[in-house]
Amino acid sequence: MILYEKFTLSNGLSVIVHEDKSTPMAVIDVIYDVGARDENPNKTGFAHLFEHLMFGGSINIPDYDEPLQMAGGENNAFTTNDLTNYYCQLPAENIETAFWLESDRMLSLAFSEKSLDVQRKVVCEEFKEHYINKPYGDAASKMRELAYTTHPYRWMTIGKELKHVEDVELQDVKDFFAKHYTPANAVLVVAGNVTVEQVKLLAEKWFGPIPAGEKYQRNVPVEPPQTAPRLMEVKANVPLNALYKTWHIYPRLDKRYYVCDLMTEILGGGGSSRLFQALVKEKKLFSNIECSHYGSTDAGLLSVEGKLVNGVDMKLADAAVMEEIQRLLDEGITDEELQKVKNKTESMLAFEDMSVMSRATSLAMYELLGDANLMNTELERYQAVTAEELIEESRIVFDNNNSNTVYYFAGN
Amino acid sequence: MLNRTQAPNIKDAIEFNLHLKPYDKFVLDNGVEVFAINAGAQDVLQIELVFFAGNSYETQHTVAAATNHLLKNGTSTKTAFQINEHFEYYGAYCTRACYNETATVSLHTLSKHLPVLLPVMKEIITDAVFSEEELATFKQNSKQKLSVNLKKCDFVANRLVDAYLYGEQHPYGKYTKAENYDALSTDVLKKYFQQYYVQGNCVIFVAGKLPDDIEQQLNNNFGKLSLKNHIAITTGNGRLVTEAPELVIGDKKRIVNDETGLQGAIRIARPFPNRHHPDFQKVMVLNTVFGGFFGSRLMTNIREEKGYTYGIHSYVQNHIGPTAWMISTEAGKDVCEAAIQEIYKEMKVLREELIDEEELLLVRNYLIGIILGDLDGPFHIIGRWKSIILNNLDEQYFYDSIQTIKNISAEELREVSLRYLQPEAFQELVVF
Predict the structure, then answer these.
(1) CB contact, 8 Å: A354 with chain B?
(2) Is residue A6 predicted with pLDDT exceeding 60?
(3) CA distances (Å), B347 to each of B4, B169, B360, in order?
(4) Do the Cβ atoms of B113 and B90 come closer than 8 Å?
(5) Given A104, A273, B205, B311, which is the most exposed site by the fewest CB atoms within 10 A?
């Protein structure tokens, strides 16, 4: 049970405090309700580029990192298709430095042309390093384009193409800030060796005076139900054939999300999972195979991907995956197998909660979803899943008309 | 009116007193030592069995790594699947890893499940069978994985730079080729297993919320085995290579791995002594200034000023024996040479100019803050201890390093810069 207190400032900023006296550190996590799904389809990669610019100086402070490091702190940030998260950790005595820094960049950025110039290049190098200059680096982006026709999950957080990042102008940056980086679109979590009273005073002092701005109304196009299977073939300079398959699943808060999460564990989580055992160990068709899902806020995808053993036919490998799924539908699962994946989930959650940083980020993410307390009820939701539900839901998810397949062929 | 241009007051690093929580130590019936940190709020724990079975001991390439990997893939009473299922049923993670000197088998679990998991851990370190079929699958899949990795410029650069630094015959310099996998046989693995695991030198690290009977549980499972205390390594016939290799320095190499690649992997490295050298802790501070954190000179110049790369880092390799000081980055093909010039320029500035007090204070504060955060929680604390113990150091080393961070002067930093940051001592490699 993670204890916390919540209050809201008059400008709409939600604040959550989680006290932990066992650590000498304090953590500040600020999450903004904006991600790649909020981007213009012709200016993709923007939310992530913007995250970089948040370190390029704010209205009153020329540099974010230096004062934080001087206070013994470190920080980082990440952007997903759904949200942008900034976090820092420092000795609890110096917590006010983090309030000062985070509040100033919520107030306003410096909007420096120089910072934009440099970060455009840095992000382009990041794009190359992770998605172009790497075998299979473009597979995930191809899959998104295939599986989503309408929803902005069609593109990756890094962006559709380098050009979108290269073309960003300072006015775009200013507009994006005004639209998304307001107190009402953010959640502030303070955790560690702090008290609620102290955080109330500091939050009021530093974040209280920030103008409310407007609450952003998200209006993301809905993905229409898929009605026929989709297949894409790719040829690239890679050494091995690879198979990628996805199926549409459910939004993060849907009860069925938990069913699908356990389903991925049964199929592809670890050395005793079904796909690994059948296709890597017994039939030796794949040299590795994984099953996971995107964990996104809007309806995401459940994914199976693996590299084929040299010489194995792509269609045969694909059929073998489907055969295992059919076996799941026909034979069901035992209570023991279900208990196994529930135990794994329990254990995973316990390990996650070890670090105060990870607790702070979880609280922020759940609050953004609607209620920080979801963090404390998560395990019950997994425990409630029955074997019947799991099979019933698998029948719907793994319907052939709901499937997307990428055959990724090795070639030159 | 709030003055936002004025930074809040901070407590400086030198005012923090860092304390490394002492371990509890006990000795199993067979002499194997256990180092324990009992702490934490969550009911979780980790156990790490450290064997002196790393690749320094093998006489045939890749045997150490293959043996370590296949420990979990079958015993005389359980298949690989049954072993995995046993751990996974209890939500536990049993992992293994092979390094230069050591090879480990680790368990992460909710504390309550320990009694049903330890016996299986014992089974895999005493009764692994290394079947022909498991080895064949391992060979095939490892070769496939290698073929993918060989397409990556950073992977290729990391292998080559180590080979240049230490020589391909040295445990730190050798790297695995497809034919090394082909040459493996179950007989060799079984023999290696007998010598370095069943009859091996072992030390155990355990941390987390430990049950009251932890000592008894460990003794019941591991205390009767024919393991030896790791201290035996210094007096026995271990094949550990610690002498400094013949080093080739001053080389400048450019290698094309992928014609179509958009980036080059830059590695610039020089040999460097290990933690026992009197300059080591000073260089740790100097390295932080140079390329050891986000605010470092290299990062500020090459990423934040010029945008040549997503990230650039310098670090001293984590070796028990001889080591190397390395600068590592991936940069756009057209800016690699410019980035390299900037790296040397930053070395020159460190050799010629004193670091100003403001920057030095920042680095002191940053490092102390990081260590403070890093001593938070039982897994981090045992990690510190493990490094101290396996490197034959003691807790004084930890406190000395804190003193160095707090007291080192700008003059001393320039002195070590002059001693080590000489371009001709570095070799240079770019893999495109």
Answers:
(1) yes
(2) yes
(3) 36, 31, 16
(4) yes
(5) B311
Picking from A71, A126, A347, the nearest residue to B91 by CB comes out as A347
| Mean pLDDT score across all residues of chain B | 91
Residue pair A229/A403 in contact by the 8 Å Cβ criterion: yes
Residues with Cβ within 8 Å of B427's Cβ and at least 6 positions away in sequence, in order, are B161, B164, B165, B248, B249, B250, B251, B252, B253, B268, B269, B270
Does B261 sit within 8 Å of A237, measured CB to CB? no
Report the gap between the CA of B117 and the closest CA in chain A (Å): 14
Q: What does the alpha-carbon distance between residue B157 and residue B328 come to, in Å, rounded to a whole number?
A: 10
Matching residue, tokens 């204890």: A3
Interfacial B residues in 181-220 facing A (CB < 8 Å): none
At residue B421, the 3 state secondary structure works out as: coil
Of A136-140, A266-270, A408-412, highest mean pLDDT = A136-140
Contact between residue A213 and residue A32 where contact means Cβ atoms under 8 Å apart = no
- Residue B193's alpha-carbon distances to A33, A105, B128, in angstroms, are 53, 57, 8
Q: What are the pLDDT digits (tens) for A62-92?
A: 999 999 999 999 999 999 999 999 999 999 9
Which of B359, B290, B349, B350 is CA-nearest to residue B325?
B290
Q: How many Cβ contacts (< 8 angstroms) between chains A and B?
A: 209
Which of B:236-265 have CB within 8 Å of A?
258, 260-263
Task: Write the pLDDT tens digit of every residue in B397-416.
Answer: 999 999 999 999 999 999 99
Minimum CA–CA partner of B262 in chain A: A133
> Residue B133 CA to chain centroid, in angstroms?
31
What token pair was written down for A205? 């002092």
State residue B1's pLDDT score. Answer: 81
- Tell me which of B14, B131, B294, B342 to substitute to probe the interface with A (most A C-beta atoms closer than 10 Å): B294
Helix, strand and coil percent figures for chain B, each rounded to 5: 45, 20, 35
Residue written as token pair 């800030």: A177
Per-residue tokens: A187: 């959640």
Q: Is the pLDDT of residue B324 over 80?
A: yes
Whole-complex ipTM? 0.90
Kindly state the tokens that stand for B278.
């009197």
Min Cα separation A91/chain B (Å):
6
Residue A37, CA distances (Å) to A14, A159, A179, B49 in order: 22, 11, 14, 46
Please give the average per-residue pLDDT across A96-118, as a whole number: 93
On whether the CB atoms of residues A133 and B261 are closer than 8 A, the answer is yes
Contact A65 B11 (CB under 8 A): no
What gap in Å lies between CA B81 and CA B63, rounded to an integer? 23
Residues 64-123 of B with CB under 8 A from A: 72, 80-81, 83-85, 88-92, 108-110
By the CB < 8 Å criterion, does A205 face chain B? yes
CB contacts of A96 in chain B (<8 Å) are 8-9
- Mutual orientation of helices B378-390 and B395-407 as an angle, nearest 10°? 100
Backbone angles phi, psi at B5, to 5 degrees: -85, -10
Six token digits for residue A396 = 């719907």
pTM: 0.92
Cβ under 8 Å to B: A residues 288-317: 288, 307, 309-310
- Pick the residue from chain A with its C-alpha nearest to B5: A60
Query: Would you say A224 and A150 are in contact if contact means Cβ atoms under 8 Å apart?
Result: yes
Task: Identify the helix (H) or strand (E) that includes residue A165.
Answer: helix A162-166
Could you identify the residue written with the tokens 């809040």? Answer: B8
- The DSSP code for B248 is -
Q: Residue A43: pLDDT above 80?
A: yes
| Residue B242 C-alpha, separation from nearest chain A C-alpha, in angstroms | 36
Q: Which of B317, B101, B75 is nearest to B196 (CA)?
A: B101
In this complex, do B43 and A350 lie within 8 Å of one another by their Cβ atoms? yes
Note whether B388 and B394 are within 8 A (CB).
yes
pLDDT of the residue at B388: 92
Helix (H, G, I), strand (E, B) or coil at B288: helix
